[in-house]
Write a structure and sequence with these properties.
alpha/beta; five-stranded parallel β-sheet; 8 helices; Uroporphyrinogen decarboxylase (URO-D) domain-containing protein; Uroporphyrinogen_deCOase; signal; uroporphyrinogen decarboxylase activity; UROD/MetE-like_sf
């Protein structure tokens, strides 16, 4: 449609952006403390196509929510976002979600510390023994740095993931002490 009827697609995307922005504002007015925008298929676009067919509409959503709900943190997640990180930063969101295919240290270096990051433990790690999950959580936290990081999976929980692994992920996460660096034998490998 972007090649055969671009005017139709622009109208549709503008309509969707307005509806999503209005709904996000409604969510905040109803008690949401944070809004996450999922551009689930954005990573399938080339960076040039994303700049044309996704970014302007995300920026419109961000602008509307920030003007009507100042102070509400906005997170942007794009599955397959490795080629778009710097472009995502230009949308005006407060947090960029990194999927599991982006190395957290590299993502942090590319984005800098003035924007927060979310992610990005590989969901497949939840199939490993519990000590390996703990090590990966510590590695990701160390690579993200001491501030501006929301620990999360780099995508959703996979079908068949053992429940005890999910519980372990939360237990380890809740036990982290952010007042001191995470102590872990992988720190040297992450620097």
């Amino acid at each position: 449609m972007c090649h055969t009827a671009p005017h139709v697609l622009r109208a549709l995307l503008a309509h969707l952006a307005k509806a999503i922005a209005d709904y996000a504002v409604y969510q905040v007015e109803s008690g949401a403390h944070c809004i996450q925008i999922f551009d689930s298929w954005g990573g399938q676009l080339s960076p040039a196509m994303w700049e044309i067919w996704s970014k302007p509409y995300i920026k419109e959503i961000v602008s509307t929510v920030k003007s009507k709900c100042p102070g509400t943190p906005l997170v942007l997640y794009i599955n397959g976002n490795g080629g778009l990180l710097e472009r995502m930063k230009d949308t005006g969101v407060d947090v960029i979600g990194l999927d599991w295919t982006v190395d957290m240290a590299d993502g942090r270096k590319r984005l800098g510390h003035e924007i927060s990051v979310q992610g990005n433990v590989d969901p497949a790690y939840l199939f490993l023994p519990l000590p390996a999950i703990t090590d990966e959580i510590h590695r990701v936290v160390n690579c993200a740095g001491p501030r501006g990081h929301i620990l999360n999976l780099g995508h959703g929980v996979l079908v068949g993931t053992p429940e005890e692994a999910v519980a372990h992920f939360f237990d380890v996460t809740k036990s982290l002490n952010f007042a001191a660096p995470v102590q872990d034998h992988l720190v040297a490998a992450a620097t």
